[in-house]
């Protein structure tokens, strides 16, 4: 083989090795960045989930208070119905 061919083969081999290493380390860096972003996203999602749980708990408390008011009003209405009937009975007795 002539020296030009040998030099060309060696140059090509080193160029190929350089490209392979550049791509390998570039991909490795990209994978690490993506993993870091995924972890950040996971942490944000966990924080959001905790906030959502707290808000749901607050809404449940408000709903319980509301339901309590509804139950009390139902009892008051029943009591008013009884009182109204008593008043009607008393009016009938008076007349």
Tell me what the structure shows:
This protein has 95 residues and is mainly α. It has one helix at 3-94. The chain is rod-shaped, with a radius of gyration of 40 Å. The mean pLDDT is 94.
- Indicate the percent of residues in helices: over 70%
Count of DSSP-assigned helices: 1
Distance between the termini: 135 Å
From the alpha carbons, calculate the radius of gyration and give it in angstroms.
40 Å
Strand tally? 0
- Uncertain runs are none
Strand content: under 5%
Major beta-sheet overview: none
- N-to-C series of helices and strands: H
Average pLDDT reading = 94
Tell the overall outline.
rod-shaped
What structural category characterises the helix and strand content? mainly alpha
């Amino acid at each position: 083989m002539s020296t030009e061919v040998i030099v060309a083969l060696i140059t090509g081999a080193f160029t190929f090795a350089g490209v392979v290493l550049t791509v390998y380390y570039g991909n490795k860096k990209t994978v690490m960045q993506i993993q870091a972003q995924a972890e950040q996203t996971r942490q944000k999602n966990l924080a959001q989930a905790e906030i959502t749980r707290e808000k749901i708990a607050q809404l449940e408390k408000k709903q319980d208070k509301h339901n309590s008011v509804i139950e009390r009003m139902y009892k008051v209405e029943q009591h008013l119905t009884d009182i109204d009937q008593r008043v009607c009975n008393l009016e009938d007795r008076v007349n």
